[in-house]
Amino acid sequence: MSKMQLGVIYGSRTCEHDVSIISAVQLMRSVDREKYDVIPVYIDRKGQWFTGPALLDMKTYTSFDPYGKGITPVQLDLTAGSGALLHYVPAKGLFGGGKEEVVARIECAIPVMHGLHGEDGSLQGLLELAGLPYASSGVTASAIGMDKIAMKRFFKAFDFPILPDCALTRSQWEKDRAGTIAQVEQALPYPVFVKPACLGSSIGVSPAKDRAGLEDALELAFSYDRRVLVEQGLDKPIEVNCSVLGFDGDRRPSVLEMPNSGTEFLDFSEKYLAGNGGSKGMASLKRVIPAPIGEELTKELQDLSLRIFDAMDCKGVVRIDYMIDRHTGSHYITEINTIPGSLAFYLWQATGLNYTRLIDEMVACAMKAYAEKERNSFAFTSDILSGVQLGGKTGGKLGGKLGGKTGGKL
Ligand SMILES: Nc1ncnc2c1ncn2[C@@H]1O[C@H](COP(=O)(O)OP(=O)(O)O)[C@@H](O)[C@H]1O
Ligand SMILES: [Mg+2]
Question: What percent of the chain has pLDDT over 90?
Fold first, then answer.
């Protein structure tokens, strides 16, 4: 049996570029080589795509050389179902055009992106267009999961537990700083948490205890995003995370983790730079598994995680983060990560599924979703085209005269 050609797509134009590389290299090293050929697809900070064996080595990225040995610039062929990675070979002489070579052909993709331009639905949209199966959530769930403001509005509609918040824009802040502060103060008591709407890894996130702190926090958050979420702040919340794996009703929760035993707020440096060596991503964090929060709450949060997964129609592996108010015991959803750091493999390992088998299941989800989409009818027979008469010369104004026989309102 020939091996499946498994494309792992990562990097991209995002603040979380480096974290994505760590997650992807970890994943590529765990793929079952008996079943799959791994095709690394690295998107650099400028948005250029590369493939090649050198990309399996972490050292390649410390000072990335796009002309380096074992690295080939490529483009994905968007023809539906092609999956080809094309490399442009320029012509040798002065005359005659260059040609495109197929370097590899992807049959299934695993997006390992964190943040914008990858986790947010944009890459998922590209893969839908290219007609390729892929192992992350689809366009809608990815987009909702990336945008903290949209995500909270969505959760509210389902009565899922979230903290009160208020949403702001940069133009509003720049026009009327005092009015913006007043809006926040009217909606929420201090302390608050200020977050760029569409970032991750705690970048640009900060707490504010008073008005001066709020101003600084807004200034910082607006330097990262045009839209900002201000949320009621909890005092040293207990944080727990739960992963869910599956697709379309066939899904299950992982054990829970408590990621930050002791620290107050996990910022970027605590998530990725502290601890052992800093290159092990989320997996290296000081964490307690299973989270010591009792059976009842564990079960409640696992059930809630499944309901969130279903409501958003997620696919593959996601991680849902919670905060527990240590004074009241109430729990709240912090966020959902549709492509979690390290793909949450350490949670599945603790649940009894090793990384290699987790990847198998993610691929199975991708293939199932693709097969389901293939079952949809894309043809709807109508004679609308045969009846349309566009007036004037070709190249004339479109949208001009679409009247005529068909009765024409399009
Ligand atoms: N409302 C809040 N109250 C207290 N701490 C919070 C609150 N919101 C976020 N935090 C802290 O900030 C961290 C990052 O927030 P989060 O919304 O998960 O953003 P990111 O997407 O950047 O990870 C959380 O893990 C938690 O430690
Ligand atoms: Mg988070």
Answer: 79
User: Which residue from 334, 335, 336, 337 has its CB within 8 A of the most atoms of ligand 1, so it is best to mutate?
Assistant: 334
Q: Tokens at residue 66, please?
A: 């796009």
> At the top level of CATH, which class does the domain 145-160+236-371 belong to?
alpha beta
274: Cβ–Cβ under 8 A, 6 or more apart, which residues?
285, 286
Residue among 353, 280, 288, 359 at smallest CA distance from 317: 359
Q: Which CATH class is domain 165-232?
A: alpha beta
Residue extents of the structural domains in the chain: 4-134, 145-160+236-371, 165-232
CATH number of 4-134: 3.40.50.20
CB-ligand 1 contact for 334 (6 Å cutoff) = yes
pTM to 2 decimal places: 0.90
Write the pLDDT tens digit of every residue in 177-211.
999 999 999 999 999 999 999 987 888 999 999 99
Rounded Cα gap, residues 230 and 195, in angstroms: 6
Q: What are phi and psi of 399, to 5 degrees?
A: 80, 0
Ligand 1 contacts CB of residue 237 (under 6 A): yes
Through-space distance between the first and last CA atoms of the chain, rounded to whole angstroms: 50
In this structure, what DSSP letter does residue 258 have? B
Instruction: Judge if 145-160+236-371 and 165-232 fold alike in CATH terms.
Output: no
CA of 395 to the centre of ligand 2 (A): 52
Asked whether 350 and 147 are in contact (CB, 8 A), the reply is no
Whether residue 332 has its Cβ less than 6 Å from ligand 1 = no
Ligand 1 pocket member 196 (CB < 6 A): no
In eight-state DSSP terms, residue 103 is: E
Average confidence (pLDDT) over 277-306: 84
Average model confidence (pLDDT) across the chain? 91
